[in-house]
Design brief:
The chain is α+β, with helices and mostly antiparallel strands and 177 residues long. The chain folds into 2 domains: 13-133, Yope Regulator, Chain: A (2-Layer Sandwich), CATH 3.30.1460.40; 139-171, no CATH class. 28% of the residues lie in helices and 27% in strands. It is built from 4 helices and 6 strands; from the N terminus they run H-E-E-E-E-E-E-H-H-H. It has helices spanning 13-25, 119-133, 139-152, 164-171, and strands at 41-48, 51-57, 62-68, 81-86, 89-98, 102-110. The chain is globular. Mean pLDDT is 84; it is low at 1-6.
Amino acid sequence: MTTEPRALPADPSERVRAHFAHVGANAMRDMPLCNPALDVATVGFFRHGQAWVGVLVTPWCMNLMLLPDADCACERQVGETQWWTFPSGEYPFIAHRCDSLGDYQACSLYSPVFEFDSQAYALDVARETLRALMVGGDPEAEAARQREAARLEGRSVAELPVSRRGFLRAVLPGGER
């Protein structure tokens, strides 16, 4: 654990960028999995509940980053997965800890990042990722995905949770059957 206060009242993007720039200049320097067209950058950090969320771009990966506040009931052991809900769906984040950032969680978007031929392209993808993250998903498509997953796992679709809207569509005339 870090001794720094964990409440993050201000945008942590510069702290995140500085930490990973240090990692890039030291531990990751000259590693063959690094894309020389990319530099360390942070994109679009914003508040989401009790945490800051944004994208980290590095020469070796692009991650969705989540830095929780101290009062967030989300502390995990390093390596443990926690699922976070956004308007577009639920995503797995892996818990990490370092002295300069304290506890944080990361969801891998790209690793390695050789498909990016420029920093500008990587930053555009990072911005689009954040935009898509905050757009509500298609509830009917998600329900169909859950039904298919249940079928493939040999579970009954009756075990799946039903939303009020889904229930009404199923029982009212003209609804889905």
